[in-house]
Fold this protein.
Amino acid sequence: MSLPAANMATTPVPSRVNILGLSRAALEAEVTALGLPKFRAQQLWRWVWRHGVTSFDEMSDLGKPVRDQFAELFTADRPAVSRRLQSVDGTIKWLLRFADGNEAESVYIPDKDRGTLCISSQVGCTLTCSFCHTGTQKLVRNLTVDEICGQVLLAMDELADWPAGKPDRRLTNIVLMGMGEPLFNYENVAEAIRIVMCGEGVALSKRRITLSTSGVVPEIKRCGDDLGVNLAISLHAVRDELRNELVPINRKYPLAELIEACRNYPGLSNARRITWEYVMLDGVNDSDEDCRALLRLIKGIPSKLNLIPFNPWPGSPYVCSSEDRINAFANRVMKAGYASPVRTPRGRDILAACGQLKSASERDRRQKTGVANRPTSSA
Ligand code: SAH
Ligand code: SF4
């Protein structure tokens, strides 16, 4: 007969450490603290990061007592999948749920010669860019290292991309362009990037990782110095007055400071350029004069332009520029020597605009539970 709950032992079970959040050095410290030799950490690392193994029982070169010990203390759990949508164009979008119930999104975008995973760095975003849906979500916290790395591993699981580094890998590039401002969560983002760059694991080189920022100027230099990843800047406007409105962090770090930090980004060369992201908003930032001013602003900086057709969301205050206008803008940019700048919209049928899937799911849940919709803020 089972005991009533009140009589059950009350000793709390210590929670296990998710080793997806541990650097190589931190994992070695955990393992040697158990009285085990360092090479056990190396074996564990390779199982987790090279082979994508989540069950300690599968780690065949570890003896049973060590496997049991690890299983008692550690996990290599990925975030749970709350929703998964696949577009007709092959794009996959996951709404992920973390242990505390918070959610964030990641998106896999396959192309002919590459497969890019777009990952989130925060739940929501403290910034309130007026065209971005994530900026309207109130709840914000930083993602932990294991939550950031977990997005990569989950995608690799679903893409059957193990062992990491095989020649036909499907996940070839990572962009930090999901929810959140990565440079507001610098320490965790940097640790996660170092882990996925490790040659004995996922082994993606810094040239295949792009971090996008709205312009947190004081963090830009160390991002280049410490990580050396590609830098993308959410520019979107070339006059302070307009950028203050579209990307409000501009009030704190205006264009002149941002451009200076980019000009000095460590390691910049013609082979390693800044990507300027520029969302095309009808009648707002898409005139010929805007384009000329844009080209003046970035002159002399090794640059790529990325013109992004605005992806509307329910209640969004903007309209995407017409195709003709985008093409005229793009032609002007190309004449100035920058190649192929328009981003093809992907996964439009699966709410691929940043933050949209999460909001749609919350709406569905509120409707199911009878709670009224919160009005969508356009701030
Ligand atoms: N916070 C970072 C990274 C996440 S946003 C940043 O702002 O750079 C990734 C890119 O998507 C940014 O360039 C952002 O401006 C753009 N974006 C956000 N909402 C969009 C929308 N509705 N349509 C098109 N691009 C959008
Ligand atoms: Fe945050 Fe980037 Fe969206 Fe701005 S564009 S609200 S910084 S996620």
Observations:
- The pocket of iron/sulfur cluster (ligand 2) is lined by residues 125, 127-129, 132, 134-135, 180-181, 214, 234 (CB under 6 Å).
- The CA atoms of residues 106 and 362 lie 17 Å apart.
- The radius of gyration is 22 Å.
